[in-house]
Every structure is written in C-alpha cells, then in structure tokens.
Amino acid sequence: MIRIVLAEDQAMLRGALAALLGMERDIEVVGVAGDGEEAWRELQRATPDLLVTDIEMPGLTGLELAQRIQRHGLATKVVIVTTFARAGYLRRALDAGVLGYLLKDAPVEQLAGALRTVHGGGRAIDPQLALEAWSDADPLNERERQVLRLAGEGRSSGDIAVALNLSQGTVRNYLSEAIGKLGVGNRIEAARLARQKGWL
C-alpha cells in the first residue's frame, strides 16, 4: 500500500480528494491536515510514504513543508497538487526536493498514477509547466523573498526586522535589492510581481 498524508486547506476539496484516493486499491490515506503545521504533525505521527499537499496554506506553505522534510532528512516524498500554474513555484518546488507537481484540474486517475510513479522512484511533473519553468528564472534569493513576502502583507520595515531578527537597515537593503532586480518602483509592486510569477 502507498500510505499518504493529504494537506489541503479547503475542507470540501480535502474530503473529496481523500475519498477518491481512498477508493484506489493500492492507496491508503493515513492522515489529513487543513494547514501546514497540522500537516507537519501528521507527517511525524504517521510517517507516510507520500505527502500530497497544496502550496498556499495557513501556517506553513506546501513549499515550506517540502523544505522542512528535506532539512530533516525524512523519507516521505512530496507531491504538490495546486491551482497555481506558475513556473516559479515549480522551480522552487523542485529545489525543495518535490517529485510530483500537478494541477488541481487534472483527473483523479492522473493523480493516482502520479502517486504511483513518485512512490516507485520517478517524477510526475505537469509537462507544460516543466517547459515554462526554465524560461523565466527567479532573480530573488531566499532572504529577499522572505522580506518581500512580509512587505507584501503590508508590514513595515520595523515589523519585518523584528519578525526576521534583522536590523531595519538590513531589511531596507534587501527590499532595495529586490525592487532593483524586479525593475519596479516600490515594495508593493515588487511583491505583487514576485507573487504573480510564483517567486513568493
């Protein structure tokens, strides 16, 4: 059996996916979670073969979960199922060791097939996204991304400095670098463009 934990913040979709995957003869849903932190607890409790996760979730994002799994050296493999057809997200997912990346409009048979492929040691990536992922490189480093994400939420430089344990001057430098790299006029435009590209 392929044992999976399913992380999805939309309750109806989470329930539907769990039910549909549970009907597959070789797949067992051993845990479900509505946010990233709950998913992390489920991973530690159930030690599944696969984590099937959305990207945008409260607490930890799917990408942050994948990074944490990678950092802790867990054997659980990650498959992302998302509405976000953004090449930037795919590139970051691959960097975090994600082996599957599918869009939510894919039929459940395709998802089940992808889970079997990843469980067997392969990759399952949406082919159109895979092509696009290499045409639009992400210019931001991880610290610039963190600062810009908080700035996009409307946080002040002082708030960001406290949240990330940095000086305000360092925060301003990171914001200035990000704005320059993205070729926009201010932090809000930079955050909007980076989010649109899937870099945040």
From TrEMBL:
GO terms for molecular function: DNA binding. This is Response regulator transcription factor. SMART domains: HTH_LUXR (SM00421), REC (SM00448). Coiled coil: none annotated. Residues 3-119 form the Response regulatory domain. It comes from the Bacteria. SUPFAM superfamilies: C-terminal effector domain of the bipartite response regulators, CheY-like. It comes from Luteimonas granuli. The modification 4-aspartylphosphate is found at D54. One of its GO terms (biological process) is phosphorelay signal transduction system. Residues 133-198 form the HTH luxR-type domain. Gene3D superfamilies: 3.40.50.2300, Winged helix-like DNA-binding domain superfamily/Winged helix DNA-binding domain. InterPro entries: CheY-like_superfamily (IPR011006), Sig_transdc_resp-reg_C-effctor (IPR016032), Sig_transdc_resp-reg_receiver (IPR001789), Tscrpt_reg_LuxR_C (IPR000792), WalR-like (IPR039420), WH-like_DNA-bd_sf (IPR036388). Keywords: DNA-binding, Phosphoprotein. PROSITE patterns: HTH_LUXR_2, RESPONSE_REGULATORY.
